[in-house]
TrEMBL record:
Single Gene Ontology MF annotation: metal ion binding
Entry superkingdom: Bacteria
Keyword rRNA processing: no
Sulfatase N-terminal domain mapped to chain residues: 51-401
Source organism of this protein record: Persicitalea jodogahamensis
Family to which the UniProt record says this protein belongs: Belongs to the sulfatase family.
A Pfam match: Sulfatase
Record PANTHER family: ARYLSULFATASE FAMILY MEMBER (PTHR42693), ENDO-4-O-SULFATASE (PTHR42693:SF53)
Keyword field: Calcium, Hydrolase, Metal-binding
Name under which the protein is recorded: Sulfatase
SUPFAM superfamilies found in the cross-reference section: Alkaline phosphatase-like
UniProt KW Hydrolase keyword: yes
Length: 498
């Protein structure tokens, strides 16, 4: 039985229409949590060893959507610059592959399922995340904003929020310097950088793209009044999408598909033994079911083409920020962290959008650059990184303060500096279709469950033997040693009492 339509709309991550009102950082004071944080004692003195920190956060970009990752179908010079002058992790995952839950992790350093919605249910999707109420004293005193205020950092936030009232940037004490989510956001961030601020700052730049790819299937298959209204209010998003879908000038359709358009992915067909929970999830979203059944091969390839162009669009906005740093001489006193809230299925398994536990949806880019301080051009393909759990302790480590929220979160600083330290062997990820544990040996143990289905389905995937997740190995003889180990990690470490 499909979710109520309001839940579906929220799941699109497009509940809020384009924003038009800008807020000027220099004149706006942080409120809420910022004032409450004053009671926690004096700020840590500013030191030259503590950099300014910029967290650039895109929306719906899977980890292979950059030319630095070997993707030949797009050019991302800004992202590539970060990779060439810093560290790129290839095994980074979101805490939950959908917008609002992932953003709750950004602000709190906790798994989204730690929180309950107004009905007492653990948060697994957008609707529940937006219904998180008042924070507990424990959470309120250990959010990212709270820790950084103690460290003496000025907090700035610009762009997409999609957070419950208790965790909005304003409520947490950030200066909200613009609500724009696109080029104007990049320009405002660049203006602040060029102003040569004296106090150390932490800035979140939350860019919307390549999220506009969502509108392709929604527009093509909108059938309900709510879906049609969503399309009618998304004028800017659709205009951007239409520009991304255009073929190069003077190129015929035949030449376009022969030379320019990305091919279908190796895992284009649905997974063999596709879990029932995924089938239920797809059936609950009219546009997604229709896209799987009705899009032609050319439609899917066009979707991939547009996704590449939208990623290039956001890369150009990132370049604006990098230019400001370089031209103002601040590269060597600024740490840049770069990631995304989740990925996009990008035609894998004949799917688009997010929310699933496949690599395209759950895997995210994670890069760090502090020129002259971190190892340049390093690719880390070993360590499991949680963008949601590890961001808070990492940022605070560089800010000169030891901070914790979820004790399973780890500072990435030792890895970024090339130190050999014991590291996690497993990592948990939540979703609306179930939960999974990935391990250092590239296995994925998943317990699929659908809210209106009382049956749980277990899958074991092996990314070494089958990197495109075309099948599963749950009944394979070699799984007998792996399944109990990952089942224990699931029950004892990542999802106790779930």
């Amino acid at each position: 039985m499909p979710y109520p339509i309001f839940a579906v709309i929220l799941a699109f991550c497009t509940l809020f229409p384009p924003r038009e009102v800008e807020k000027v950082a220099a004149t706006k004071k942080g409120t809420g949590a910022a004032n409450r944080n004053a009671k926690h004692g004096p700020a840590v003195p500013h030191a030259s060893s503590r950099p300014n920190i910029i967290y650039i956060f895109t929306d719906q970009q899977h980890r292979d959507m950059m030319s630095a990752a070997g993707n030949p179908w797009l050019k991302t010079p800004a992202m590539d610059y970060l990779a060439a002058n810093g560290v790129r992790f290839t095994r980074a995952y979101t805490t939950n592959p959908v917008c609002s839950p992932a953003r709750v992790s950004l602000m709190t350093g906790r798994m989204p399922g730690y929180f309950r919605d107004n009905k007492g249910q653990p948060v697994t999707e957008n609707v529940g995340a937006m219904r998180i109420g008042k924070l507990s004293p424990e959470v309120e005193s250990t959010t990212l904003a709270t820790w950084l205020k103690r460290a003496g950092y000025r907090l700035l936030f610009g762009g997409k929020e999609h957070l419950p009232p208790s965790l909005t940037p304003e409520a947490q004490g950030f200066e909200d310097f613009t609500d724009d989510e696109r080029g104007q956001l990049a320009e405002r961030a660049a203006e602040y950088i060029r102003s040569q601020p004296k106090d150390p700052y932490f800035m979140v730049v939350s860019l919307i793209n390549p999220h506009d790819i969502c509108y392709m299937a929604i527009r093509d298959f909108a059938s309900t009044e709510q879906e049609k209204r969503l399309v009618s209010t998304g004028a800017e998003e659709i205009e951007t999408l239409d520009r991304a879908m255009k073929r190069p000038a003077g190129v015929s359709e035949a030449e376009f598909f022969e030379k320019y358009c990305p091919p279908l992915p190796p895992n284009y067909e649905p997974q063999k033994g596709e879990p029932r929970a995924i089938k239920n999830y797809i059936a609950s979203r009219n546009f997604q079911q229709a896209a799987r059944e009705q899009y032609t091969d050319k439609d899917w390839r066009t979707h991939r083409w547009a996704y590449c162009r939208l990623t290039e669009t956001v890369d150009s906005q990132i370049q604006t920020i990098l230019n400001a740093l370089r031209e103002s001489g601040q590269e060597e006193n600024t740490l840049i962290l770069y990631s995304s809230d989740h990925g996009d299925m990008d035609a894998a398994h004949r799917l688009e959008h997010k929310s699933l536990l496949y690599e395209e949806s759950a895997g995210v880019p994670f890069l760090a650059m502090w020129k002259g301080h971190l190892r340049a051009g390093t690719v880390d393909s070993t360590h499991l990184v949680s963008s949601g759990l590890d961001l808070l302790p990492t940022v605070c480590d560089f800010a000169g303060i030891t901070a914790k929220a979820d004790p399973r979160g780890r500072s990435l600083r030792p890895l970024l500096e090339g130190k050999k330290v014991p590291w996690r062997q497993t990592l948990g990820v939540e979703s609306t279709v179930g939960r999974m544990v990935v391990d250092a040996q590239r296995h994925k143990y998943i317990r699929y469950a659908w809210p209106e289905d009382d049956k749980t389905e277990v899958q074991l995937l092996d990314l070494t033997r089958d990197p495109y997740e075309t099948t599963h190995f749950t009944d394979d003889p070699g799984a007998k040693a792996v399944l109990p180990r990952l089942s224990r990690a699931f029950d004892e470490l990542w999802f106790p009492n779930k």
